[in-house]
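User: My collaborator and I are trying to settle a disagreement about how two of our proteins should look. Neither of us wants to argue from intuition anymore, so we agreed to look at predicted structures for both before our next call. Could you fold the first one, then the second, and keep them clearly separated?

Assistant: That sounds like a sensible way to settle it. I'll keep them separate. The first protein:
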Amino acid sequence: MRHSPGSGCSIIVEDDPDCGVTLYGEGSGRRIQKGGGNYIPDGQSFVLFDVRIGGHWLDPGNMADVGRSLGLNVIPTLPCMTLSDMMDRVESLESAWPNAPLEGAIGRPVIPLYDNKGHRITTKVKVKDAAQARESG
């Protein structure tokens, strides 16, 4: 899919590492996912959670600026914390969507890390997994 804003520059929305800009996100809302009507009761939307320009990932603030400038919903950014703090706090975090429970939180190292194939390392702490770890721990 291509989106051409009024400025005349093209923003390419596809998973192609050689393209200029790649937007990462997911569709949400009614008829897209189970419980999607809790997020957007009367329709669908795209929620942006990452942006890569060429081979470089944008920091959360710049990613949010890009999303807002394109009129997209942007996933909220949490303050910097350790993985252990994420595990302890994820159950008490509030969802950005009032009628939908929080699924979890995504963590990225302050200094980006990559595996031996050049893929960025991130982690997801799901509420249900944190609760299970707390109960068994």
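The second protein, kept apart from the first:
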Amino acid sequence: MPIRHPYRQYCPVATGLDLVGERWSLLIVRDLAAGPRRFRQLARSLPGVAHDVLADRLRTLTTAGVADRVESGYALTEDGRGLLPAIRALAEWGAGRMGPPPSEMVEPAWRAITALVIGFDPAAAAGVDLVIRLRVDDESATLHVRDCDYRPTTREPRLTLTTSVAAVFDPGRVPDSSPFVCTQQGLDPGLGEQALSLFRLPGPGTHPTNTVAQMR
């Protein structure tokens, strides 16, 4: 598929923007960071995108080798995962320019999951080999954390971290002092805190390790 409006510059930044710089493209990559998504799921987590635009962006991303069609929908390729550090850096930069959350914030639960996953901290994952399920309201993603990286997986998790959209995006308004609830196989009181330390949300006051995981 030819690039519609190429910058025509011999520059890596321009080349990257030729491939993923159209509106919605990087948000699609963000929403695939936690695992494969079907078209209707992407449409639901990207309110405001027209279906024909979403279909066009997915075609562009698959042609560029950033995403691929899989049995469960669309997934990032290894090449596409190479964009995640750039999205993480963009999230850090953007967080410093956001105001407080609106009083009646309505965000898709998958957005909260991707916020946690985009904030994955490779340094905190040194020596970790753990399958974790992140559950936010009615959505969940299962990740295998290993070798300072993570991959979406279908394996059964060792533990599940359960929370809400409000606890992720506006923890100051959550009355419960322990908005992250941890359930696990076996009894290891430190495992929940270790799991929380792997995810660093951008912006002040939104680091999950500032909360206390409840074990049950």
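Some points you might bring to the call about the second protein. The radius of gyration is 18 Å. Confidence is low (pLDDT under 50) at residues 209-216.
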